[in-house]
Amino acid sequence: MVFDAITIIKKALAECSGTQDVQLTDGGEHADLASTVAFGLAKEKKQAPVKIAQDIVCALKNNPELVQQGITVEAKGPYINFVFGSAYVSAALKAATQPGYGSLPKKETRVVLEHTSANPNGPLHVGHIRNSIIGDTLARAFRKAGYRLEVQYYVNDMGRQIAIVVWGFDNLEHEQAEGEKEDAHIARVYIEANREIEKDPGITQQVDKLMQLVEGGDAETVKKFRKEVSRCLDGFAVTMKELNVKHDRFVWESDFVRNGDTKRVIRKIEKLPQARTEENLLALDLAEFGFSNKYVIRRSDGTSVYAARDLAFHTWKSANFDRVIDVLGADHKLIGAQLQCTMKLLGEKAPEIVHFEFVSLPEGSMSTRAGKFVSADDLIDEVTKRAFEEVTTRRPELDEETRKEIAGSVARAGIRYDIVKISPEKSTVFDWKEALDFERQSGPYIQYAHARACSILNKAGTFTECYDLETEQEIVLAKKIAKFPGVIEKVVAELRPHLLATYAHELADTFNTFYHYEPVLKSEGKVRDRRLTLVTAVQNTLKESLETLGIDAIRTM
After folding, report:
1. Are residues 410 and 539 in the same domain?
2. Residue 285: exposed, middle, or buried by beta-carbon count in 10 A (0-12, 13-18, 19+)?
3. DSSP secondary structure, 272-301, as one string
């Protein structure tokens, strides 16, 4: 497999060059892998990169591990190119036919990954689900890479928005409409409560009082907050199930007030040289670290702010996990950076943060407070409807239930892939048509390639597995298959799930090109055996790729 080859090459290059930074990259058209290490060594050795590359290649040619793996090496100007031979291709092909292909060795590292964590004051909207899909894809990749992982949802059950919801249920008409989801019901009450606050700012004092009562542990108020938040989470659960998103644990913000962790963190912060107290308001002056705004920890009325409870939560995560990862929207960049800075000042493990820009629809921006948003439920319903129409056009002979089942899988694939294929730091507009295009860069396109591989194997009947490939198209496809474990490793190392989406599409493309040029079912003898073996490896690798992307690897479309 390419992942093993990379390890061997890295080790050999490090020994020859004297540096661990061997600068490996894709070899493009000329090689499977290439190294630009000669450029980095030129200044140190006071030699031309071309000469350094030639010397390293001379030393590598006799490396027994490279020879054993059938890896040839040559200098192309200042570049050191590596080409994998037939032994490597055969071994990779054999590995790719095995169940669970791409899984990496089990690791003892404990990882906690927090994603979604939307405020429970209304349905998840299109902006939220990019968080969910990025987080869930990363979680699947971490598990595929062998890590001990826990996926958490941090429940904000104490903030002002929840207090407004509770005030609304206490003071407004709030009967749940027939068939209305819990989260949609809560959003309706929240929106109406905000309208009342705009008309009568005095209501704000009542909201503040609710916040003081819940932090003080008033039993009746705590019960009210917990009840409405739980109902909203029940609504979220339905949406996330439709998107194939899973959490292992829901961690409640209020628990860190109840157990004293928030007070303990505040006491530690008060002792920091950056702490500033004025009329009981506590804040951190982080100007020396480049922050112009003070980081408020406690209000003047003695109640803690979200940041204090978030610090308590992250202190707990720091103590219980080796690697802490948060998926947050771009609007959280400032508070995320302040959190990281403060955790370091407290001597705790700072989280790694994956910031993402928001996904939107052509309809425009979304605001729960103003009641202007497209819910994720609406998006799922619309995409499923369009997917059903597409499946019906393509497969009218199937019964309605089967078409609905396929449409559900195709809709999930369309949404998840269209959102995750863009690198997190780039904003994107969800394109209905492109997301469901079976012929373009979409989830259904990859599903269709998988279904085609299944169809070929179903028609083939029995054959003898053969791993000795010969033609250029066969070898190109096998080498693309071999890259899958390395892609998984890179996704978890760099926290960039779009790399897996790109790989899955490239594999589907490469398979379709192979299928176009190389007859499979019409070939005979050993040629037929090796091509069917290759199709088996493609089917298995596409299946593992799709499932790691949270997409159903359906066998017919």
Report:
1. yes
2. middle
3. STTEEEETTEEEE--GGGT--S-EEEE-TT
DSSP letters spanning 23-44: -EEE-TTT-SEEE-HHHHHHHH
Quick: pLDDT tens for 360-401. 777 654 444 444 567 899 889 989 999 999 999 999 999 999
Residue 553 resides in a domain: no
Place of tokens 């760099």: 494
Of 361, 391, 367, nearest to 379 by C-alpha is: 361
CATH number at residue 226: 3.40.50.620
**142 and 15 part of one domain:** no
pLDDT digits (tens, 9 = 90+) for 281-294: 999 999 999 999 99
Report CA Rg, the chain.
28
Q: Can you name the residues that pair with 33 across neighbouring β-strands?
A: 26, 82
Strands 275-278 and 295-298: unpaired
Phi, psi (5° rounding) for residue 464? -95, 125
Task: Give yes or no: residues 398 and 286 share one domain.
Answer: no
Q: From CA 465, how far away is CA 101, in angstroms rounded?
A: 17
CA distances from 280 to 260, 267, 298, 474 (A): 19, 13, 8, 72
60 shares its domain with 159: no
Label residue 124 exposed, middle or buried (CB < 10 Å: 0-12, 13-18, 19+): buried
Taking the C-alpha atoms of residue 162 and residue 120, their distance in angstroms, rounded to an integer, is: 7
The answer for residues whose C-beta is within 8 angstroms of residue 392's C-beta and 6 or more apart is 403
**Per DSSP, what are the bridge partners of residue 125?**
375
Q: How far apart are CA 258 and CA 276, in angstroms?
A: 25
What does pTM read for this prediction? 0.91
Amino acid sitting at position 477:
L
Angle at 233 between CA 227 and CA 234, to 5 degrees: 90
Tens of pLDDT, residues 129-176: 999 999 999 999 999 999 999 999 999 998 899 999 999 999 998 899
Last residue of a domain, one of 309, 329, 360: 360
If DSSP states are collapsed to H, E and C, what string results for 428-471? EECCHHHHCCCCCCCHHHHHHHHHHHHHHHHHHCCCCCCCCCCC
What domain range is 337 assigned to? 115-360
Burial 11-30 (b: 16+ CB within 10 A, else e): ebbeebbeeeebbbeebeee
Q: How high is the pLDDT of residue 3? A: 62
The answer to whether 97 and 540 have CB atoms below 8 angstroms apart is yes
Count of the separate structural domains present in the chain: 3
Tell me: pLDDT of 512 over 60: yes
Rounded CA-CA distance 261/40 in Å is 48
The answer to whether residue 102 sits within a structural domain is no
Record the tokens describing residue 548, joined without a space.
């790691």
Cβ contacts of 263 within 8 Å, gap of 6 or more = none
